[in-house]
Design brief:
It is a single chain. This protein is α+β, with helices and mostly antiparallel strands and 222 residues long. It has 2 domains: 77 residues; 121 residues, Immunoglobulin-like (Sandwich), CATH 2.60.40.4070. A 5-stranded antiparallel beta sheet has the order 6-3-8-1-12, with no helix packed on it. It has a 4-stranded antiparallel beta sheet with strand order 2-7-4-5, with no helix packed on it. Strand 10 and strand 11 form a beta hairpin. The chain is elongated. 13% of the residues are buried.
């Protein structure tokens, strides 16, 4: 049976419709697409030994293998294009969050544009003397509130920070401390300053004063 290599080895003879092989030091495109593969197989069939023709099953197997590889390559390209589109859509949607605040788990509170420090938590049991403190990096109490008797359940807090003229006052990052009760699921509202892309077409990243946050980590948006 005449093989593909046999065709190129005997290509110095100018058979009708057969292109002369390039010299060994020739350069060119080394890729083999589906059209090139089919032309090569057609040439092979055309010049095969009629007394020892190519086995039908072998030919079908070659076609199936090439089609499978080509299909995987095209699917990979399609998935990459879809991922790029989805990534752009996610970034476009996330940009709409700029200027808003998001509720994220944690005990660090920052002021919004109105100078408000706010958040919420779950009080696991009733208490008679609940209070909340906001502390600076030195551990000093900057603001506090006495809530007194509270039933078990969700509790929201909001501190209004103003200067002497009544203008919003940003006092930086403050730590939330809960006294007189057992609390869980503490979360604070933080403003979204900007949005940036992540690597490998991943989800966009929301940039906040307490650090970077993925949209999936936000409990609420306000």
């Amino acid at each position: 049976m005449t093989t593909t290599s046999d065709i190129f080895q005997t290509s110095s003879t100018n058979y009708a419709g057969l292109t002369q092989a390039q010299p060994e030091n020739a350069t060119g495109d080394n890729t083999l697409d589906q059209d090139s593969f089919l032309r090569l197989m057609t040439t092979q069939l055309k010049f095969q030994d009629p007394f020892d023709p190519m086995d039908n099953q072998a030919m079908v197997a070659q076609l199936a293998q090439f089609s499978s590889v080509a299909g995987i390559s095209e699917m990979k390209q399609s998935l990459s294009e879809i991922a790029a589109v989805l990534g752009n859509n996610q970034l476009s949607e996330a940009k709409e969050w700029i200027g808003h605040s998001i509720l994220v788990p944690g005990n660090i509170s920052v002021a919004d544009k109105n100078g408000q420090y706010s958040g919420e938590f779950e009080l696991t049991s009733a208490t008679d003397n609940l209070s909340i403190d906001l502390l600076n990096d030195a551990g000093e109490i900057v603001m506090f509130v006495e809530l007194g008797q509270q039933d078990a359940g969700p509790v929201e807090f909001n501190f209004d920070s103003k200067d002497e003229s009544g203008q919003p006052l940003d006092q930086g990052r403050l730590r939330v401390r809960i006294n007189g009760g057992s609390a869980s699921n503490l979360a604070t509202w933080v403003p979204v300053a900007s949005v940036k892309t992540s690597e490998s077409n991943g989800p966009p990243i929301l940039v906040t004063p307490i650090g970077n946050v993925f949209p999936a980590e936000a409990l609420k948006i306000g």
